[in-house]
Amino acid sequence: MIVEMRTGATKKEVDDVVQKAKSFELGVQLNVGTDKTVVALLGSNTGQIPTDIFAVLPGVESVTRIMKPYKLASREFQPKNTIVKCGGVEIGGERIVVMAGPCAVESEAQLMEAAAAVKKAGASILRGGAFKPRTSPFSFQGLQKKGLELLSKAREKYSLPIVTEVVNPQDVELVATYADMLQIGSRNMQNFALLTNAGRSKRPVVLKRGFSCTVTEWLTAADYLLAEGTDQVILCERGIRTFEDSIRFSLDISAIPVLKRNSHLPVIIDPSHAAGHYTLVPAIAKAAVAAGADGLLIEVHPNPKEALVDGLQSLSTSDFTRLMNELRAIAKSVGRYI
Ligand code: PEP
Ligand code: MN
Known about the structure:
CATH class of the largest domain: Alpha Beta
CATH superfamily of the largest domain: Aldolase class I
Bound molecules: phosphoenolpyruvate, manganese (II) ion
Distance between the termini: 43 Å
CATH architecture of the largest domain: Alpha-Beta Barrel
Oligomer: single chain
Number of helices: 11
Strand content: 15-25%
Number of strands: 14
CATH topology of the largest domain: TIM Barrel
Radius of gyration: 23 Å
Structural class: alpha/beta
Shape: elongated
């Protein structure tokens, strides 16, 4: 951390900064220029110390972080890629893992038809929302416990592990008894009570990026999960809010190499929520595989026209099958397989 003193800061003001640093057991390096003094604070934990502690001191002009505020999610902490295991499927290795299924579980017939089709096309994990985080309280909220039971039935019938969203900290235990993997949605990325409970659940967790959050905030949120002693966390980019309004969300494809550089956690892409329209999903999915994603989370519905949630962005089972074949070729060209 670098503390820049104001022009004309007194010796006492500089000494107070040094004393404060020492109270945190930080090393100090003074750089006295002709006009200004700059104090470098040294220590392996400066990323976890709030900059405000120094910024409020008299005579301080600015405080700049050098260390990242996240720790457990960082590559410095764990140089090797983490492999996440979900019901026998490994995410983060050579294989690109496709998780697919409906946005929401709507009925037994709908879920079973979706599960059969995505399995046949080569998906290795079934997705489906039982608890839905809806913008309006009057929209379909999901089948909840009944939805979890149907997911569990689909897992037995099609031998597909299931990933499903948990919205509420109090529901983590319930969802974890049914799901192989928990999903924390974009709107809940910084729901810290939910993160803590999910981290304790002994289930792997897909942490979606908040659509208004930076990569640094996202990795710092991942630290909440990892702080509970698990390393089974997957990061899922699903598009962010920008000025662009020709698409539902702008998919930040550059987040893939940025995360790969800064973190050891597997990275997957959800092209469906970014696209908002089924015609846009395949190109984004293919770009993600080419850019180094470890997996994809794709919405597939046996009859998108009748879907209760996100029908416009859901692929039909035949469009999904075609996409899987195209993805295999892209995966091969980057030394991976599906
Ligand atoms: C979902 O996966 O259906 C979902 C609600 O996603 P997000 O949290 O990315 O909006
Ligand atoms: Mn959805």
